[in-house]
Amino acid sequence: MIRLTAERTPAGTSYLATGQGHPVVLIHGVGLNKEMWGGQIVGLAPHFQVIAYDMLGHGDSPLPEPGTSLEGYAEQLHELIEHLGLPRVSVIGFSMGGLVARAFALHQPQRLDSLVILNSVFNRSAEQRAGVIERTRQAAEHGPDANAEAALSRWFSHEYQAANPAQIAAIRQTLAGNDPQGYLTTYELFATQDMYRVEDLGSIQAPTLVATGELDPGSTPEMARQLASHIPGAQVAILDEQRHMMPVESPRLVNQVLLHFLQQAQAFKNQSKGIVA
């Protein structure tokens, strides 16, 4: 078992880092924290340097200033890799983290080696948009755990919930423990920024993978395909029978997809530079 001690950047971002080699940064979803990536840290660390951090308003990182934009969340990632002295990184963003990863790709393209967007949102329908706006209103009124039971039902299969009650309870506790304002600031961005700079997505030149679960109701396969169609050369992976929290529910399956893509991207990079593996 890999046991890590969290560290902090000068700006206060809390992060974990382990492994050797090409750096891969993991960005969690809204209401969660860096601990969600346990399965990926174990699976990826034998091959890469793996860094997981807490977004603004989550875990042990600072709260966002009122009105912080998606650019502010991308700047947090930039400060982290500057602190670690990493000239270029691969970025894996899950759900809200996928929006942050997209913003980072647009604002810091020279720092991005490859991009993975997992179970993230794009071009919501009117019905989907109304649903997420209503959940934002409920969170503003009742706090971060206002939608916890409904969220867990969307995120996990019934079988996984029944077989892993302690883990589900811990995630429910994580949701409830979020700072209300930090959570709401982040959730409002999650609810409204699915089309963030859509006209500029064609400028992303890094190898890109967009993946989601076949049964993910909020980050649907159609969203993944549409998003990938805007990014030159982007690959799409739809994982059979998986729901939203597939990195937690099915880490081995997700890790297989991630390792294949990341190693393929690194091989292509080395080939383009004339480096023989």
UniProtKB/TrEMBL annotation:
<dbReference type="InterPro" id="IPR000073">
    <property type="entry name" value="AB_hydrolase_1"/>
</dbReference>
<dbReference type="GO" id="GO:0016020">
    <property type="term" value="C:membrane"/>
</dbReference>
<dbReference type="InterPro" id="IPR000639">
    <property type="entry name" value="Epox_hydrolase-like"/>
</dbReference>
<feature type="domain" description="AB hydrolase-1">
    <location>
        <begin position="23"/>
        <end position="249"/>
    </location>
</feature>
<keyword id="KW-0378">Hydrolase</keyword>
<dbReference type="InterPro" id="IPR029058">
    <property type="entry name" value="AB_hydrolase_fold"/>
</dbReference>
<dbReference type="InterPro" id="IPR050266">
    <property type="entry name" value="AB_hydrolase_sf"/>
</dbReference>
<dbReference type="GO" id="GO:0016787">
    <property type="term" value="F:hydrolase activity"/>
</dbReference>
<protein>
    <submittedName>
        <fullName>Alpha/beta fold hydrolase</fullName>
    </submittedName>
</protein>
<dbReference type="Pfam" id="PF00561">
    <property type="entry name" value="Abhydrolase_1"/>
</dbReference>
